[in-house]
Specification:
4-stranded mixed sheet, 2,3-Dihydroxybiphenyl 1,2-Dioxygenase, domain 1, alpha/beta
């Protein structure tokens, strides 16, 4: 068993696509109609055949409640691994990304948390 697709709920798929590709640097993988919305995924350019991130519309009341609640609690929706967290933090800050937590060391991991502008907090981490 392998993980092929995981998702984050987003308020606006096009806004999310722009942020995840132009700011974070992911690449669009799938973009096809799915009812009133799209099946819209992005991947890391470092692993184009790796795990896809589905930018899932939060049009369901349960999804909206879940997304809002974990955001308000300061809980990240997902986590991405980076090679150099300080360089990535600086790069994202220069692009206007707002962080709720600067790089913080906790045991063998350093992590930071930022707002994806689409209703989510996202964690980036680096193992030592």
């Amino acid at each position: 068993m392998r993980i092929k697709i995981t998702s984050v709920f987003v308020e606006d798929q096009e806004k999310a696509l722009q942020f995840y590709t132009e700011v974070l640097g992911f690449q669009k993988k799938m973009d096809m109609p799915a009812g009133d919305f799209k099946w819209l995924t992005v991947v890391s350019p470092e692993e184009p055949d790796g795990v896809e991130l589905l930018l899932e519309p939060n049009e369901n009341d349960a999804a909206k409640t879940y997304q809002k609640t974990i955001y308000e609690e300061g809980i990240p929706s997902t986590s991405f691994v980076v090679d150099d967290i300080h360089a990535e933090y600086d790069r994202l800050k220069r692009q206007g990304v707002e962080f709720s937590m600067e790089p913080t060391e906790t045991g063998p991991i350093t992590f930071a948390i930022f707002d994806d502008t689409c209703g989510n907090l996202i964690q980036i981490s680096q193992a030592r």
